[in-house]
Each structure stands twice: as C-alpha cells, then as structure tokens.
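Quick one: structure tokens for this chain, please?
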Amino acid sequence: MNFTALFLRLMLVIALVLIMGPILTVIILAFSSGATLEFPPPGLSLKWFVAFFALEEMRNAFLLSLGLALASAFGSCLLGVMAALYSVRRGGMLGAIMQGLAMAPLVFPALILGLALLILYRTIGVPVLPGLFIAHVVVCLPYAFRSVLTSLQSFDMHLEEAAAALGAPPLRTFYLITLPIIWPGLLSGFIFAFVISFGELNTALFLTGPGITTLPIEIFSYLQFQGNQLVVAAASALQILVILVLLFIAERLIGSRGIVGR
C-alpha cells in the first residue's frame, strides 16, 4: 500500500470518527440509567424517553417539528420542481437568474434571514405557524431545487416533445413521462429538505411564538435554562431515529447511490 492510499484511509477514519463519534455518544447517553450526564453510562434504561414524552412541551414540539418538516419538504419540492423546470427549459440569462434566486437562501446567514422574515411578518401581519412554514420552505428550497435540477439536466427533452406531438397536454406529459424519470432526484431533494427543516434552529428562533415551538428550539431552551441534559439526549436520539427511518425508506426505493449522487 502506497503512502497516498494510506493517507486517504487515515483521513477517512478521522472523518468518520469526528462525524459518527458525537452521534453515537448522544444515542448511548439517551439510554443511560443514570441521573446525570455521565459517559460511559452506569447502565441502560428507557426512562429518559419516557420522561421526554411525559413533558407536554417536548411532545408537542416533536409533533410540530415532524409535521412542519413533512409540509416544508413537500412545499420546497413543489417550488423546486417548478424552478428547475423553468431554469432548464428557459436557459440563458433568465434561467441563470432563476437558479440564483433558488439558491440564494444558502448565501444569506440564517440569523439574518430569520430577522428579515420577522420584520416582514410583523409588517404585513402573518400568523406564527404559516410564517414558520414559509421560512422553512425558503430555507429548504435550495436543497430540493438542486437535486431536481441535477435530474433534469440529464433528462432528454425530446421525450416531452414527442408526447406533445402525440397530443398529450403538458400536465399529463409531466405526470406520465417527466416525473417517473426525475423522481429519484425529487425524492433526494425531499430527504434533504426534511432533514434541514427537522433540525432548523437559527431561522426559527425569531419566528416561533407561545404554544408554537419546534423541537430544536425546545431542546435549546431546555438545555440552557430548564432541566436534565439526558432528556435532551433522548430528544436528539428520536430526531436521529426519524431521519434514519426516512433514509432507510429512501434507500429501499432508489438506493444509497441514487441519494448520494444527487
């Protein structure tokens, strides 16, 4: 084995340790039987998961985050498909402008975006929950857009032209021809959008209100001001579990190569 291959493998091991180490630590601590944050835990127990669901504010925040992430993923994918179709079919300067607008949320810091949306919502009177949904869609849009755009760039537009020549209307052409071909990219975009929305904190800090608090904000608040860090570990483990279940379903549908490739 030459030096380059050894170095690359070493870097891979270091990266895996840095990425997976903290995640595995949180998962292990979530099953701790102890009363304090102690690693390794003295034993294993499910009591912190029971404590998590016993807390009404945690339970409600979890359900809100789950529903919001699903709705935001659908919303961002819908907008991402329309923006990607316009960018590919229109091309030129207008297509480039559309790509820039769709990817713009990645350029601006989330705190600035959250503050700007807060000022806008208070000016025009947007309720908390719809405003939070719009903010999550905006944050997730670049991920959905880019995944769909990647699929459309390799899509043969002559297929749509052939369908149109045979008399198929645009919506029927999209549903029967375009969508089945680009759906792996659409599913990848949905996964990325869901994960981003499910863990979004910075933008949502400015936009939540009484009785409408997402799980990341509730975790942040509980960790800073209220109680036991092991309840937070259980909450984080549940977030990880939800994401893993979603990734498993997607892997069964399109394979890990299809997800990572986009």
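The chain has a mean pLDDT of 80.
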